[in-house]
Give the backbone structure.
Amino acid sequence: MGFLILIIGVGFFFYLRQLDYGLGVTGMSRSVTWGLYIAQFTFLVGVAASAVMLVLPYYLHDFQDFGKITILGEFLAVASVFMCLVFILVDLGQPARAFNVLIYPTPSSILFWDMIVLNGYLLLNMVIGWTMLDSERKAIPAPCWVKPLIYLSIPWAISIHTVTAFIYAGLPGRSFWLTAIMAPRFLASAFASGPALLILLCFILRKFSRFDAGREPIQALAKIITYALIASIFFVLMEIFTVFYSQIPGHMQHFQYLFFGLHGHHALVPWMWAAVILAAVGLVLLINPRTRRNELLLAVGCAAVFASLWIEKGLGLVVTGFIPSPLEKIVEYFPTRPEVAITLGIWALGLLVLTVLYKIAVAVKVEEENGM
Amino acid sequence: MNSGRRAFLKVTALSIIGVWAKPVLGGDGPSKFTRDPKELLAKRWAMVINPRKCSGGCKECIDACHRVHNVPNFGNSKDEIKWIWNEPFQDAFPGQEHTYLEEDFKKRPVVVLCNHCNNPPCVRVCPTKATFRRKEDGIVVMDYHRCIGCRFCVAGCPYGARSMNFRDPRPFIKEINPEFPTRTKGVVEKCNFCEERLARGLLPACVAACRERAMVFGDLEDSQSEVRKLLQTHFTIRRKPELGTNPQVYYIV
């Protein structure tokens, strides 16, 4: 935890520099006006939404295997949404005016709805997670008003990532994002990357605490990741077919930039191919039951999936929307040191929140298991 | 729940409603500002530009605009802010160029600026209405005090017309024009069709500065205006019309 606090401190120091100098400390430019911060927010909304992959089977379909770890999913959602909100605040040019979005509500703006659904989801998961855990600790049944909240959190989880996809998918001037399958792609990659992280967290908990999620819940989650990953890869292939078969230059350019470089600019090409290889490794390890059942290989597969989708969503998606610019210029984006420091600081902050929440959850669960 | 907590919650709820009620419900009442009698009025301001009249290398319109509006010059393209500038034909009208295009046209710069669209995506996406379209004359304006600097409008604009202040602009303004505000870091800005000059009876700075009279400004809904006459007698194109933004800057080709 001390290490996390150190990283948070460094990030905070650089944020003060950003507040003083302006967002110019980052690598963003007139042409690429969203960078690392918004990309992290986009990726983490997906991780947050993935809690529904535990809640839905357990509460709607009585899939008992997930009973022990739903709280882990809900707390991961809390930490993720918290990070999303911090990333958004850090990205604002005038953060002190953030409440203007509340004082001057603008229903035509997707950002307005995003603020509502994100904060609502945070509140939902905090209330649900805390209440359920508290009831468990006291060994009493949960209060009856939690059930409707849990049911609400299921479509709400879908909505947070759909609304976030709408931020991108409704802009007429950005042909890379103007695709109807933006929201389905977001959801598929969310349901692969979020549970992948959750499995890794379960392994970490098994190693460093007395909480053991058990074999079956992890295997069930692994199957969910497998299918979500297949869907995610399929969607990307669909995009590639549409742009390259139609041969429309305006649509092809972005994918050319990502995978082959465009007019001599190729900063993201090695990253994208790394993402492809990682996705292939993850797919092979997860689709094959023999390797999926081997928990070490499963961990490797989950790490590969998480890394691949982080590159695709956290690096590739946002920046490429701006390349080429509306005036056909290619301005590449490279994050700066202060920007990376702030980003790592916020990740560390989220991990700190997650650690605290997980310690509480584990303490209650272990206590309950030992019949105290 | 003890009475202390209950009272606290009541006060909090009332405060939130109190803060929210005024701006959402009504605002501050009728305006106390008076209009200049020389003010230029229109139902739909628009501009017609003839790139053939532009002499190469001339930057009078750009310099005039940036001088009058305190647009900073940072000296690098990363932080660059521009309200009006030149683009080669194929970048102003992507997809319209071809190998056998008239050579003169290929080399001639086309002046580009905010199109003050009738259906502006930037206004649609702004979460605070810091940018909005004036119903009375169609100008798309910015309120620099309300802008939170989220840059959604920059992403939304299909024409790259908007610039973000990534740094404090004030040290980089060559000579401050005290009659127009400077901006702070952290807000987005763009061409405003010189609404402050129109209010005093003056044409936009770029139009007034152009020696070749390549830019004509007027009211589209006035059938006798020069812009209407030009549109009736010349074939004109607009930038990316297929996107449905309904831009109001027309180019004679």
